[in-house]
Amino acid sequence: MAKLNTNGNVYTIVYAAVMVIIVAFLLAFVASALKETQDKNVALDTKKQILASLNIRDCEDADAKYNEVITSGELDSPTLTATVDGQEKLIVKVKGAGLWGGIWGWVSINKDGKTVFGTFFNHESETAGLGARIKDDQSFQDAFQNKQIFDADGNVALSVLKKGKEGNLGQEFIVEAVTGATLTSNGVNDMIQAGLKQHADVIKAFAGGDAADAEAIPEVDEYEKIETIDKPVEPKVEEMED
Amino acid sequence: MSLFSKENGAVFTGPINLNNPVAVQVLGICSALAVTSQLKPAIVMGLSVTVITAFSNVIISLLRKTIPNRIRIIVQLVVVAALVTIVSNILKAYVYDVSVQLSVYVGLIITNCILMGRLEAFAMQNGPWESFLDGIGNGLGYAFVLVVVGFIRELLGFGSILGFQIIPDSAYMDNGGLYINNGMMTMPAMALILVACFIWVHRAVNKEENK
Q1: Which residues on B lie below 8 Å from A127 (Cβ)?
Q2: A25 falls within a domain
Q3: Does ipTM top 0.90?
Q4: Of A16, B71, B165, B182, which sits with the fewest C-beta atoms within 10 Å of its C-beta?
Q5: Does the CB of B176 have a partner CB in chain A at under 8 Å?
Q6: Is residue A10 part of a domain?
Q7: B19 vs chain A: nearest CA distance in angstroms?
């Protein structure tokens, strides 16, 4: 076989074109072949996250448990209702900005409309071992349990604060920030305050009447409102997590 | 040449010790800083890099005689990027938990200097089998450094190993003990210092061979 001139212009261009086409088809094929399985995984994972906010973790069959517990709302609804051990709970989805990317989570609230039943937080790309602990460290999420959401005036007072920054705020409103991840913790703080404030009406309706009232608020509008809370993420490079 | 000849053995073991990609070639430092604050991501990252280096080495080695010289870096980059994308898709479909854990790190693999370094320096001149061994060897050499650094940082920075608390709770200041975690260890700068210490020890031990 004659030796190809691998340095010629035509050869180079054809080679590049063929390579790109092959890789494009390959990637498109892999992506579409696996999409269905991936989507299922994502849905299942979301269900697990919502269940985790109800303090149901590590259950064998998350699908079945989810269907059993959740009484209204879809996976992407801003609020859902659930019944755990015969008690009604309201689950509020919250979204915000961490240090490096988006963070989100679910806060479940007792029937009294005042105390937190459980929480779960997740993140896009917080630093492993530091900011990522809002998700990995269950004790951070558990610290929210039984905390009070509203102060005497009905404003959202639940806060994530560093030790020593409490001011006059009572302990029943304060969750201690993740050590070494101040900016991510501030993100969680802003996220839950904004999210709960946004849904204060739904929470009050939930506490005041039955679950149907909570559903009466148009969900689509609420969801769009949350989106506007998302601030553009500006990575603060000079401000490393301390 | 037999598959397990002495030369091939050297190709495989060289990068694990005497020609370690991090300690001697000083490649892949950036990701070594980013993922070693705890042991588990360090291990996962080390294994992923090993697999991807090995297979991209093989692919480039098979193509090496057809690759136009002027666009060889682009070809290498496309192969690595395609491989990483496919691996991340497969992880997402079949081991979702692992893929969630890896999220950022999969992307980081593409930028790992060890991959491009090995493709350019080894796979472009050698056969597929040697390239495969070279990829595995370099990956493991990288993984070894990550595990050492991750072990020290997690132990001193969080008092735990792989998430299990090693230092008893009662020893902490908060609970009336005398011990306090070294917050410095959780910061990237400390990884740099630890890698430097690793290189120091490595050079001191292998003084003869380096001469």
Answers
A1: 37
A2: no
A3: no
A4: B165
A5: no
A6: no
A7: 29
CB-based contact (8 Å) between A5 and chain B?
Answer: no
A50 inside domain: yes
| Residue B96 falls inside a structural domain | yes
Q: Residues, chain B, total?
A: 211
Q: How far apart are CA B83 and CA B57, in angstroms?
A: 11
Show the domain range for A104. 46-223
Size of interface A-B (CB pairs under 8 A): 78
Residues of B in contact with A20 (CB under 8 A): 78
Determine, yes or no, domain membership for B204.
no
- pLDDT reported for residue A242: 44
Which residues in B15-32 are b (16+ Cβ under 10 Å) and which e? bbbebbbbbbbebbbebb
In a domain, A240, yes or no: no
Indicate the number of domains in chain B.
1
Which range scores top for mean pLDDT: A4-8, B3-7, B37-41, B147-151? B147-151
Please write the tens of the pLDDT for every residue from A162-176: 888 877 888 889 998
* Residue B186, domain member (yes or no): no
Q: Which residue has the tokens 């690759």?
A: B67
**Reduced to 3 states, what is the DSSP secondary structure of residue A159?**
strand
Domain range for B20: 7-146
The pLDDT, as a whole number, for residue A238 is 46
Residues of A in contact with B75 (CB under 8 A): 15-16, 19
> Residues B130-138: what's their mean pLDDT?
90
Contact yes or no for B93 and A7 at CB 8 A: no
Alpha helices of chain A — where are they, by DSSP H?
9-52, 62-69, 133-136, 138-142, 182-198, 200-208, 211-216, 219-229
Q: Do B66 and A128 touch (CB under 8 A)?
A: no
Residue type, A29: F
| Residue A239: band (very low, low, confident or very high) from pLDDT cuts 50, 70, 90 | very low
Asked, for residue B163, whether it belongs to a domain, the answer is no
Give the best residue of B59, B98, B173, B187 to mutate against chain A (max A CB count within 10 A): B187
State how many domains chain A has.
1
Residues of B in contact with A38 (CB under 8 A): 89, 92-93, 96
Residue B9 has pLDDT above 60, yes or no: yes
Task: Look up residue B126 and give its amino acid.
Answer: N
